[in-house]
Write a structure and sequence with these properties.
This protein is α+β, with helices and mostly antiparallel strands. It has helices at about 75-90, 95-105, 120-125, 240-245, 310-320; strands at about 5-10, 40-45, 50, 55, 60, 65-70, 145-150, 155-160, 170, 175, 180-185, 200-215, 220-225, 255-260, 265, 270-280, 290-300. Strand 3 (about 50) and strand 4 (about 55) form a beta hairpin. Helix 1 crosses helix 2 (about 95-105). The longest helix has 18 residues, at about 75-90. The protein is globular and about 80 Å long.
């Protein structure tokens, strides 16, 4: 459940008798995992072959003698491990495994389209192919990423009732932009519970308050509307409120995505809420332990016109206590001609 499993995708195109480029390699296993958890978590290039094994195209590497070429998920996994190792090395002090996993997952994308992995394909691609360092640790002028590293206790919740949003993406009473979130944590685990192995679940909501007028009384009430829903819901299997409460198929990593579209979404102010749910109730002794978690939120202007980073950085600096992730300084070398 806590392992990062890696699938392989093809780096070549077999048009007649094999996978296309960027599609799952014929030998790569697919999920889902225990309790319908998304497996593999991520994918990378691991070579390819035709379905009848008459043609093999491997990943080039080196061995003790010279160059080598072979295929397998054992070639894809080290590529993901390299990115994870670079995340551990670049951030100082060294991040927790939960934060490192969240950063590794947050900017992963479908290798075919460079966008989100569509519903139904996650059992083959997981959350996608991870972005390399430094791209997974930096913001562009049109994006801003907030990282929360905290703990939750049963019976309590964390709430940001006026979540900062770039003023330039709020026009005519409507909000615009693109938002994605990643929640990662190491759930409390109980071996004696069998399929109910994971004991805790973190529920996240990000959306806006809207005024709603009653047709009967004319009274205006405030209603919360979520605008960043969970991805890969797999209705009837995972993430639905009924499943969370009754079937309890919880996962240690989840992603959310919302595109507010060209017409935008109306709302008054933004609200972020995180709540810890326990499988056997807070009266259980084990459930009283605090649950560490990492939450990453990125707000982006899909049209790449608004300087989202500058606006959100100014709001956060003026209103809240925050600090940048500290990265190691890169060594610069100048070669004399």
């Amino acid at each position: 459940m806590l392992a990062i499993t890696v699938g392989a995708v093809s780096h070549v195109d077999y048009k007649k008798n094999g996978p296309k480029e960027h599609y799952p390699s014929a030998f790569s296993r697919h999920g889902s995992g225990p309790n319908y958890v998304i497996k593999p978590d991520l994918v990378h290039y691991g070579g390819s072959c035709s379905m009848d094994l008459t043609h093999v195209a491997g990943i080039r590497s080196v061995n003790g003698l010279a160059s080598a070429e072979n295929l397998g998920t054992s070639f894809a996994a080290p590529l993901v491990s390299r990115t994870l190792a670079q995340i551990y090395h670049q951030i100082t002090p060294t991040p927790s495994p939960v934060l490192a996993r969240a950063l590794l997952t947050h900017h992963a994308r479908d290798p075919r389209t460079r966008s989100r992995v569509p519903d139904g394909d996650e059992n083959f691609f997981g959350f996608g192919l991870p972005a390399s360092v430094p791209y997974c640790l930096e913001c562009t002028p049109h994006t801003s990423t907030l990282v929360f590293d905290d703990v939750l206790r049963p019976g309590y919740f964390l709430e940001w009732n006026d979540f900062p949003y770039p003023p330039s993406l709020h026009r005519g009473g409507k909000y615009f932009g693109e938002i994605w979130m990643t929640v990662a944590f190491r759930p409390a685990r109980g071996a004696r519970w069998g399929t109910e192995y994971c004991e805790t679940h973190i529920d996240a909501h990000l959306g806006v308050y809207r005024g709603q007028k009653s047709r009967e009384t004319g009274i205006v009430t405030t209603k919360f509307v979520g605008l960043v829903p969970p991805e890969h819901k797999n209705v009837g299997l995972l993430y639905e409120s009924y499943q969370v409460e009754k079937l309890r198929k919880w996962a240690p990593v989840r992603t959310y995505y919302g595109n507010l579209g060209e017409k935008g979404e109306r709302g008054d102010r933004w609200r972020l809420k995180l709540q810890l749910l326990t499988r056997h109730g807070i009266e259980d002794e084990e459930a009283f332990k605090p649950q560490p978690f990492s939450l990453i939120i990125t707000v982006s202007d899909s049209e790449k016109k608004v300087r989202v980073y500058d606006e959100m950085a100014q709001i956060v600096r003026n209103r809240f206590q925050a600090q940048n992730l500290t990265l190691r300084a890169g060594a610069r070398m100048r070669i004399k001609q």
